[in-house]
Amino acid sequence: MMVKGEPFLDTHYFLYHSDATRTRRHKRAIKERLDTHPAIEWAEEQRPKRRVKRDYLFLDDDAHHNAPQRRSVLSHQNNRRAQKRQQPTSPREIPSLPFPDPLYKDQWYLHNGAVGGFDMNVRQAWLAGYAGRNVSVSILDDGIQRNHPDLAENYDPLASTDINDHDDDPTPQDNGDNKHGTRCAGEVAALAGNNQCGVGVAYKAKIGGVRMLDGAVSDSVEAASLSLNQNHIDIYSASWGPEDDGRTFDGPGPLAREAFYRGIKNGRGGKGNIFVWASGNGGSKQDSCSADGYTTSVYTLSISSATYDNHR
User: Fold this and answer.
1) CA distance 170 to 162
2) Which one of 61, 99, 109, 249 counts the least CB within 10 Å of its CB?
3) How many CB atoms lie within 10 A of CB 67?
């Protein structure tokens, strides 16, 4: 067998058969030899799990999203009111709102654009000088386009790796199916004020990505992703999980659970890592977020959201 990539959880390794054409019986014999080897404490054949990206859903009959009648919240009057709420003595850089990025005006969840004026309340944080400085976020997904003009300046190589191909480059395959991780990275840390695309919630944060969904996903793949550089990464963000079909119940395996525990116990020099999980899109199928061992784990923060017109 061949060892690929770096060890994870200190002492665990990815082992691959050097000859993929070996029979099942031959592979089973190799596994038995590993189990009885005096230098090996534990070995397990990894089985692929079905993991689904939890993405934005475009609803064909959603007239609000096709032609939303959104009230304008980008006027100078509103901007002045927001500026008054800032702390004038803050040593941090205070942005001048609204941002000039072309898609910022469409990011209704950032500037009171939803029905009833609801949003994520981040402008008050921005005007107090908070924008994610000195925070490292890693997106566990299908990779991120690290040279994207809205991400390159904030890219963090220490929060990035490729578990699928066992190298350091998280760039996704350019096959049309692997843009979810880049989109998630942009929602978090897209640059502000550079006239590109939109604005990230924490536009000064350092952003990295782990390419781990672009291949077979197993317990070891999840554990290696969740345990990456735990003394450097502050926040791990995962927008995927078991099928949200109202019938499937699944959760992290023993290696992933160990990665969670080590992260909250020892990560960031004892302060603990923060694991953020998307709770899923199964509401229309009567799927419960509780039927998911990732979102119900005591070690994760499970996040749900609402639509522009305040529907779940």
Assistant:
1) 5
2) 61
3) 7
